[in-house]
UniProtKB/TrEMBL annotation:
UniProt GO BP: proteolysis
Signal peptide: none
PANTHER family tied to this protein: SECERNIN, SECERNIN-1
Pfam families: Peptidase_C69
Protein's recorded name: Secernin-1
Family of the protein in this entry: Belongs to the peptidase C69 family. Secernin subfamily.
Lineage, top ranks: Eukaryota, Metazoa, Chordata, Craniata, Vertebrata
GO molecular function, one term: cysteine-type exopeptidase activity
Length: 395
């Protein structure tokens, strides 16, 4: 039985669809309902020649220098569902199912590739090149969930964005194709979306699919038709219309509103899956303006607040959004893996659970608390606009 990919959604809006010369990026991370996602920061670092980096399942060669990154990640693994680096690059991952079964052998997870792309790429294209090179060298595979009873495996798709352009990268095993985006609104989800517009690809991609009998070489090469099961690739993406209706006014608030929309299915709340964390990033095309990244760090964006983060010289860690560390005793690191499931809730997650309980059990107090929190969120959004305005005035 093929695993069902969680219905996550990623978006990017470029001028002229977005406001004030901004690139606006957003993602809802749908994961198993009880999984805890944390927000973590890692400073830029230099590494000794020959050093290694231990990813979720395998160890690979480290590079001489890694960029500062802020990540939203399932707290049991090394990589990330989504994040940003100090150069204004944002990357998000989607689990996808293709006609080629994903490998259960432990290799790099799609989430590992998100973090590696951010740590090693100063532009979206550099991050793309990092991800595909590592994919070709190490492959992808291993359990996507903290589940000792079953191995849930997927292929990976990515949305990679910087101030100037975005790349949609879709993969099956070590094979891949990518499309470059520089304008308009784009959405990707847990289904393949690349068709005949391919701007970069694995050099052996077409030979491989021809050898498998999936493409005869005579018709136009359509990536999603070749690699999708049945017509899966035809039904994506609910939230795009909402953003397109904004005309030229897609803003951070508009992206947040789309991510909160349960009626469209973008905000996932099902028996199996929940939107366990969300991000919205605002990337001014003018490099003299700072990028601002908003993280929830808690589930269900319709009941969570987006909190701003800006890369500065002296970032202070926030322990309240970091899960407890279990070191080498972590059941995710011991072989066989996932024999136990420790309590990974961080302080913010616990506070969110309390607030959710209040909303459900005392409607008046719950709604009052939600109004207060939304007001704080609005102040954060206004403060961001003020920072950009003051930067403009100073210039």
């Amino acid at each position: 039985r093929m695993a069902v990919a969680p219905p996550s959604y990623c978006f990017v809006a470029f001028p002229p669809c977005s406001k004030d010369g901004l690139v606006v990026f957003g993602k809802n991370s749908a994961r198993p309902r009880d999984e805890v996602q944390e927000v973590v920061y890692f400073a830029a670092a230099a590494h000794d020649p020959g050093s290694k980096v231990e990813c979720t399942y395998i160890e690979i060669e480290q590079v001489p220098k890694t960029h500062a990154v802020v990540l939203s990640r399932p707290s049991w693994l090394w990589g990330a569902e989504m994040g940003a680096n100090e150069h204004g690059v944002c990357v998000a991952n989607e689990a996808v199912v293709t006609r080629e079964p994903a490998s259960e052998s432990e290799a790099l997870l799609g989430m590992d590739l998100v973090r590696l792309g951010l740590e090693r790429g100063a532009t979206a294209k550099e991050a793309l090149d990092v991800i595909v090179a590592l994919l070709e060298e190490h492959g992808q595979g291993g359990n996507y969930y903290e589940d000792g009873s079953s191995c849930h495996t997927f292929q990976s798709a990515f949305l990679i964005v910087d101030r100037n352009e975005a790349w949609i990268l879709e993969t099956s095993g070590k094979y891949w194709a990518a499309e470059k985006i520089t304008e308009g609104v784009k959405c990707i989800c847990n289904q393949l979306s690349l068709t005949t517009k391919i701007d970069a690809e694995h050099p052996e991609l077409r030979n491989y699919v021809r050898s498998q009998g999936w493409w005869n070489g005579d018709s136009d090469f359509n990536f999603s038709e070749v690699f999708s099961l049945a017509d899966d690739h035809l039904a994506c993406c609910s939230g795009r219309e909402s953003l397109e209706k904004q005309g030229g006014d897609v803003s951070a608030q508009a992206m947040i509103d789309v991510l909160r929309d349960k009626d469209s299915g973008v905000c996932v709340d099902s028996e199996s899956f929940l939107t366990t964390a969300s991000i919205v990033s605002v990337l001014p095309q003018d490099p003299s303006f700072p990028c601002v990244h908003y993280f929830t760090g808690t589930p269900d964006p319709s009941r969570s607040i987006f909190k701003p983060f800006i890369f500065v010289d002296d970032v202070k860690l926030v322990p309240k959004v970091q899960s407890p560390s279990f070191g080498n005793d972590d059941p995710a690191k011991k072989i066989p893996r996932f024999q136990e499931k420790p309590d990974r809730r961080h302080e913010l997650y616990k506070a969110h659970e309390w607030a959710r309980s209040l909303l459900e059990n005392d409607q008046d107090k719950g709604q009052k608390l939600m109004r207060i929190m939304l007001d704080l969120e609005k102040q954060g959004l206004e403060a961001m606009e003020d920072i950009l305005t003051r930067t403009e005035v100073l210039d």
